[in-house]
């Protein structure tokens, strides 16, 4: 028999776990590189840019467009990588709380 009170308790527990996982996203970081490592961008799980490192050899006026392109590429790579880590963190935090419902992936909520 379906126990609504038990289910509501599980939902509340999941909400708490997801909030805790969201708070930890700030501490999950990853770095993307472009141009053979000449441009590096580090982002966190909240999709905030933490740092950008540009090799000094690229800092000449003639290379401005290339540096901009490499910076965008490095940031996008870092965002993709940290997104995977963030989804895994959310998934691990909510695992086992609610039954496996096909099509319901809480890791994709963020």
From TrEMBL:
Molecular function GO terms recorded: DNA binding
Coiled coil: 4-31
Keywords per UniProt: Coiled coil, Cytoplasm, DNA-binding
One Gene Ontology term, aspect cellular component: cytosol
InterPro entries assigned to the protein according to its UniProt record, in alphabetical order: YbaB-like_sf, YbaB/EbfC
Lineage top rank: taxon: Bacteria
Membrane-crossing segments per the record: none
Alphabetical list of Pfam families matching this protein: YbaB_DNA_bd (PF02575)
Localization, UniProt: Cytoplasm, Nucleoid
PANTHER family the UniProt entry points to: NUCLEOID-ASSOCIATED PROTEIN YBAB
Function: Binds to DNA and alters its conformation. May be involved in regulation of gene expression, nucleoid organization and DNA protection.
Family named by the database record: Belongs to the YbaB/EbfC family.
Subunit structure: Homodimer.
HAMAP family recorded: DNA_YbaB_EbfC
Protein name: Nucleoid-associated protein BFP71_10585
